[in-house]
# Entry
Amino acid sequence: MDQQIIKKLESNPIEASAPCRIDMGGTLDISTFSYPMRHLEPLTFNIALGLRTRVRLQPYSKGRIKISSKGFKDAVFTADAAPFDHPMGLMFATAAYFNAHGIHIDIDSQSPPRSALGGSSVAAVALVAAFSKLLDHERAAVRLNRRSIALTAFQIEQSVAGVPCGIQDQLAAAYGGVNIWHWRPDPKQSVFKRQCAVRKASHKKLEHHLLVAYCGQPHVSKDINGMWVRQFLSGRYRDLWPEIVLCTHRFAAALVKGDYRQAAVQMNRETAIRRTLTPDVLDNVGEKLVNLARQNNCGARFTGAGGGGCLWAVGEIENIDRLRPMWEKTLSSREAACLLDVKIDSRGLVLE
# Structure
């Protein structure tokens, strides 16, 4: 990387930020599932949250890369030996894509570490945007190409993850808002089609129908995702996946109409199917939260691939208001567990 470009960072560090997400129908964005089930028109629903991840580029020692991130030890390696299987491996791989060195990547996330809200993918989206701006520094303004940035971050992650990856996290980070993502496994079409499910003017209203809880226990998404992939490839439980697609369709349609009772029914059904596939998708706290939601006519689901991290609930306002103190009491039994602030992010990726 040109040292003149790096030198400019001394007086003008580059920052970018993007939001995390909660979701329904995750995994259907992985080609392992979307291609064989193409005839069912798989989709994923997600909501971008105002818990943003900020990435800052600063100068560092020539030939070396340093990464700092809350919840992880600082990592410093020479650019040609940075490990892609490190906890910060995706960030090192992203730096390698841009042939970057002499850079300090500082990551500040408002969401808990490893909370199943898509945090690493969000950081990668922000980092791709930051590097893109750095390399295009001479221009007066850098136009954000959200689609290109999301796809670049996705392809980098898929290249080093060691397991099949989806793209919903990157898309929620890039675009923000409340969206239905239609997966289109056809080489003649775009990989995805975006459908706005709830417009910005109605975001505040939707927030009153939601709860998001961090269960205080980090997750490892590839363990459960990997199990789902292996099951699907072997044919085990494959007959349950069409129903997961159907539940997601019905959930998204109910949310668009503002039918929160039906959305809760479909969410609970999808969660039950996932628990049949992988009982460990919920820990004991998560199981209590899901049961309380059901008892109060709300829907509840883990975010991402589960196995720790966060859960979210949807329902009529009076049911959510009744559920809130019950969830708070349950979460108080575990250190670090808590309800998270539910603010829908409409901005998506921002260069700051």
